Amino acid sequence: MIAKVIVDVPSQAVDRMFDYSVPDSLAKTLVVGCRVHVPFANRPVQGFVAELSDSTEVPKHKLKPVTEQLDLVPPLTEELLQLAEKIKTETLSLHVAVLKAMLPQAMRAKYKKILTVTAEINKLDPLLQPYFKTSEDVIEWDEWIKNASENEIKSAVSSLRKGLLSAEPVVTTKDAAKKRLVYSLKEESRQAMKEAESLQKKAPKQAAVLRFLSERPNDKAYTAQELSEYGSKAALDALVEKGWLAKQETVVKRDPYEGREFESSENLPLLEDQAVVLGEITAAMDEKEHRTFLLRGVTGSGKTEIYLQAIDRTLKEGKEAIVLVPEISLTPQMVNRFKARFGSRVAVMHSALSKGEKYDEWKKIRDGEVDVVVGARSAVFAPFTNLGIIIIDEEHEASYKQEEAPRYHARTVAVARAEHYNCPVVLGSATPSLESYARAQKGVYQLLTMENRVNDAVMPSVTLIDMREELRTGNRSMFSEDLLDKMEERRLKGEQTVLLLNRRGYSTFIMCRECGFVPECPHCDISLTYHRTNQALQCHYCGYRETVPVRCPDCDSDQIRFFGTGTQKVEEELKKQLDGIRIIRMDVDTTRTKGAHEKLLTKFGRGEADVLLGTQMIAKGLDYPNITLVGVLAADSMLHLPDFRASERTFQLLTQVAGRAGRHKKTGEVLIQTYSPEHYSITEVKQHDFLSFYQKEMQMRKMGGYPPYYYLTMLQVSHTDLHKTVQFTEKITDFLRQNLSDTTKVFGPVASPIPRIKDRYRYQVMIKYKIEPQLADVLHELMVSLQTDIARTDLQVIIDTNPHMMM
Ligand code: ADP
Ligand code: ZN
Ligand code: ZN
Predict the structure, then answer these.
(1) Where does the Helicase C-terminal domain start and stop, copy by copy (predicted)?
(2) According to the model, what pLDDT value does residue 397 have?
(3) Ligand with an atom nearest the CA of residue 270
């Protein structure tokens, strides 16, 4: 038997299957989808068995055997293997990168470096000789350098260079499961009880342990720690010795939600709108037909309740459900709603879990112990085998696009999986992405709409505050008079405020504080990016460049500034302005430690602060009845990012955060501070008018030639040498122009908005097209032609076939 293996070597040159013979010892157990160890270029690497076959082109004497099988149950199902090929082609990723992305991190291979002697030992520096007493001895580099002396390290490095030592990477795939030792009773309870009596005098602790265990079910096992109340480790070992207890290693399941009580909940009687929506979804289930629904429902319209009931229906049919939620809204509140309805049938996967916890949650899915997973982007790869529905909440969120290889979008993956299982996908949002809404308009997705909040809760009233006006009246602080007054008013009433500092885009654009003027590119209608390195403003779509103006070209004011403030500064200012105000600040700094996010929210929920101040991460998922005011500082800071989605993101964020106010009985109010009060991405928030925003933004996209009217592909080229970076980018641009059709536009070479990261210069090329059937082939051919340069110099070329980050 021959195994066709995808090896874990990140190089285009070996991005294909390699043949290995399967030794007899593995012939019965090895199946497709298993991880294996194989020798590759004389070193052991991890690989995935993609196919098993009985033929090979490789001559017999050259065929090497699989050295080890790592999984008895394959972690990748046939369906996932097929899916991987599809993603590989669509995103131009390495095959192995896609396969690894489908698995929990704990299952990915680790490689450690091992030094071996290649010459005779006595030729080696005497300093190093003691480490190689026998021919079997090796140095485990990563461990060794922790204790080695400086001279030893120097000597080792020079010996490596001279070829006296050689460094080999060795694959070490750690067992991802957590194990522990447990004790259990070996004899019958009655006898153990008797023994306890006779031990009572001489060994009271041993007696206590036996008594405790004989009063419990016989097969129950406990750790030494759990038994420490009754007897020490020594007492336990004595009992093991005498044959009363068994001591074993067992696999422990880490349950990050263990010990927590979840109030159980049941399906609520649906409102009319909800019933209609659910009816459409269940109809698709009944017809066993794949359909993608776009559910646009305002914040608080009861979308989550629909998800819950659609899942309930799926489970009743014996099928499984995947629910994707953006990372930052995977709050305990959100998780609780699923746990309350489906209890221990739910696995939760998000980045706050440790590697081990993630592995355990994944394993519960693979072993069929759960049938629902709620998780961030990568949960779309949950190894279910009988999927009945996939739900993507807040489908417009940028975090569904992975920004490293493989650059997949969870939405695309979800649709591909649902097609395989003939089941529905439900995309939900109050502010769908333009791409999705356009698809719904064309009938590719089926549109479902809910315009009203549950229980007729009114949408909060939104007021725009023109910060230019504030400045004119002499208020130079970051807070308008109105916002301060209203925050104080809330505090006196014992109600709460959410204060959003929209901080993305820190100092990357400049703006006139007098009139709100932001310099834009004359060719692209996109704001210019400030480049610190050369003190210039530049368009990163077409390369246009100008110097930073000293005075505003529009109103001649000298108040032209780089834009950006930090949350810390806001907190200090606010404390100065409102004496004694209690603030909880939530940003990357205060939420770095595990569980911090949750603790802060719980505190806020208990009313221990008047204000929750934070960045983007507070805009989602909060559902506290006492929030009656939402304030937004610098609503427009994102608007001027050099990104064609800037308006869309601004509208989405503002709508989201506005939705935090007045979700329950008390009505809410939203104050948005802005320097661009006429911009449609801000004015349409006032009316909660998605449709009007959509129409205006579609016009802009049409004029600018952006998605959803055109497709984009971006190539990011980087190199440590600036001249070479430009040269390679030029070569790439020429190649693309020559090989793509005339209707396709190739823009470049252009310096990236962040022109150098970690001493690497970055240039980019953008491809805009409507129909380009050759694209994947041309790009593949391009990568193959660059292969030698990539291998020999430090050239790097990244292709993103659906870019979401333009920096
Ligand atoms: P969304 O996900 O659209 O923001 P939710 O599903 O969170 O909306 O619903 C908002 C609030 O209304 C929640 O507190 C939820 O429990 C409640 N709710 C939803 N559907 C119903 C219903 N049919 N009857 C009563 N309350 C409901
Ligand atoms: Zn001005
Ligand atoms: Zn431009």
Answers:
(1) 547-704
(2) 93
(3) 1
List the end-to-end C-alpha distance of the chain, in Å, as a whole number.
48
What is the model's pLDDT at position 258? 62
User: Which of 454, 483, 518 lies at the terminal end of a domain, its last residue?
Assistant: 454
Domain count for the chain? 6
Neighbours of 541 (CB within 10 A): 24
Bridge partner residues of 716 (DSSP): 764, 798
Q: What is the pLDDT of residues 653-689, one digit of tens each?
A: 999 888 888 777 788 899 999 988 999 999 999 888 9
Question: What spacing in Å lies between the alpha carbon of 454 and ligand 1's midpoint?
Answer: 6
Pair (624, 657) in one structural domain? yes
Answer positive or negative: Cα dihedral of 683, 688, 692, 698.
positive
Sorted by sequence, the CB contacts under 8 Å of residue 106 that are 6+ apart come out as 174, 176, 355, 356, 358, 359
Q: Do both 308 and 362 map to the same domain?
A: yes
Residue 73 is assigned to a structural domain of this protein: yes
Cβ density class 279-288: b for 16+ within 10 Å, e for less = ebbbebbeee
Q: How far apart are CA 515 and CA 57, in angstroms?
A: 72
Residue 798, both tokens: 């990244």
Question: Residue 649 — left, alpha, or beta (φ > 0 → left; ψ -120 to 50 → alpha)?
Answer: alpha
Residues 598 and 479 in one domain: yes
Of the ligands numbered here, which is closest to the C-alpha atom of 519?
2
Which atom of ligand 1 sits closest to the CA of residue 269?
Answer: 23
- Ligand closest to Cα of 656 equals 1
Spell out the residues 6+ positions from residue 431 whose beta carbon is closer than 8 angstroms to its own.
396, 651, 652, 655, 656, 690
Tell me, in angstroms, the distance from the centre of ligand 1 to residue 453's CA.
8
Judge if 632 and 608 occupy the same domain: yes
Backbone phi and psi for residue 714, each to the nearest 5 degrees, phi listed first: -120, 135
Provide the domain limits for residue 392: 272-454
Amino acid identity of residue 793, one-letter, is T
Q: Are residues 434 and 468 in the same domain?
A: no
Nearest alpha-carbon partner for 106 in 177, 46, 212, 53: 177
Say what the pLDDT of residue 664 is.
73
Instruction: Decide whether any atom of ligand 1 lies within 6 Å of the 297 Cβ.
Output: yes
Helix, strand, or coil (residue 135): coil
My answer on whether 364 and 480 are in the same domain is no
Task: Judge whether 423 is annotated as a binding position.
Answer: no
Could you tell me if 690 and 740 lie in one domain? no
Q: Is 631 in the pocket of ligand 1 (CB under 6 A)?
A: no
CA of 638 to the centre of ligand 2 (A): 19
pLDDT at residue number 153:
86
Q: Alpha carbon of 744 to those of 524, 713, 724: distances in Å?
A: 17, 11, 26
Same domain membership, residue 725 and residue 693: no
Q: Is 34 labelled as part of a ligand binding site?
A: no
Structure tokens at 344: 């221990």
> Of the candidates 668, 701, 734, which is a domain's last residue?
701
- Distance separating alpha carbons of residues 605 and 469, to the nearest angstrom: 35
Q: Using the mean position of ligand 2's atoms as its centre, give its distance from the Cα of residue 636 in Å.
A: 16
